[in-house]
Amino acid sequence: MNPTFDPTDMPLRDIHLPDAVSWWPLAFGWWILVSIIFIGIIVFAIRFHAARRQRVARRGIQKVIDALHAGQNPVLCAQQVSTIMRRFAMTISDEPDVVAGLAGQDWLAFLDASWGGTSFTRGEGRLLLSAPYKDEGGLDQKHCLELGLLCMTWIKAQPVRI
Questions:
Q1: CB 3.0 to 4.6 Å from 74: which of 16, 116, 123, 144, for a disulfide?
Q2: Residues ≥6 apart with Cβ < 8 Å to 33
Q3: What are the boundaries of each domain within the chain?
Q4: In which region does residue 19 sit, left (phi positive, over 0), alpha (psi from -120 to 50) or beta (all else)?
């Protein structure tokens, strides 16, 4: 070692740190993540908007079922269920004019064909034809509730169309 050497006399500079990393422009991975999130939000919004018909119909049927539990006249409730079903069927159909003109067994056959069952032509769904026209007291609450639940199941089984 050199005894005459003094390290404080050296012309050294302090350590230089690199500049801070900027957040802009974004790296490629962040662009991919932002794109995936954006596409996901768009798909969700489209599906949410397309399913609004089903939500409105299900809410209407649920209100009728709640009214039945509260003691409302079953004939009036059956009329409301029939109206809700007809309106919903016309909104999801490719030919709403044809659906609007269906009556009687043709209407029930259309409902069965829309989900592949026979609950409307051979089951509780037959009440859609006769219940709205019965006298007050001509329909019991149990059958009307079963009709409401059947219609709710039919609405849920319909595919969401975009």
A1: 144
A2: none
A3: 53-157
A4: beta
